[in-house]
Amino acid sequence: MRHAGPDVLARIEPLLAALRARGVLHEMRPGVFYLKSRAFLHFHDDPSGVYADVRFADAFVRLRVTTDSEQADLLERIDDCLVSVEARTDKRRPRERGAGRRR
After folding, report:
1. What pTM was computed for the model?
2. Is 4 exposed, middle or buried (0-12, 13-18, 19+ CB in 10 A)?
3. Is residue 101 part of a domain?
4. Domain containing residue 64
5. What is the C-alpha separation between 89 and 42, in angstroms, rounded?
6. In the chain, how many domains are there?
C-alpha cells in the first residue's frame, strides 16, 4: 500500500479541511498530521480505497476512509482521542502559583 499522492488527497479534501480545523493537529506535509511532536495520521492509497493510519495510544490503526460515512467515523474517533489527550495534559499541568491556597 503506497502513501497517498496529491490526486488521492484531492479526493479527500473535505476530510483534510476538517482535520486542519482541529487546532492541536499540525500538518507537516500534505496529508501528514502530527500531534505534539509525534506522527499521528497519514493516508494510503490502495485499489480497494483510501486508508488512514492513525496513532491511537501507542500503535497505528489502519481505517478505510473512502466514503463520507467512513470519514465521519474517523473524525469521531479522532475527536474522542483528542479529548483523552487533552484530559491527560490538563492533569499534568502544574497549578498556578498560589492557586487553591487558603487565606
Report:
1. 0.80
2. buried
3. no
4. 2-92
5. 23
6. 1
pLDDT in tens, 15-56: 999 999 999 999 999 999 999 999 999 999 999 999 999 998
d(CA 43, CA 86): 24
Report if residue 99 sits inside a domain.
no
List helix spans (H) across 3-103.
6-11, 13-20, 68-92
Q: In this structure, is residue 25 part of a structural domain?
A: yes
> Is residue 7 included in any domain, yes or no?
yes
> Which residues, including other chains, have CB under 8 Å from residue 67's CB and lie 6 or more apart?
none
4-8 contacts at long range (C-beta below 8 A, 24 or more positions apart): 4/31, 4/42, 4/43, 4/44, 4/45, 4/50, 5/45, 6/30, 8/43, 8/45, 8/50
Closest to 24 (Cα-Cα) out of 94, 93, 85, 95: 85
Band the pLDDT of 84: cuts 50, 70, 90. confident
Report the alpha-carbon distance of residue 26 to residue 23 in Å, rounded.
Answer: 7
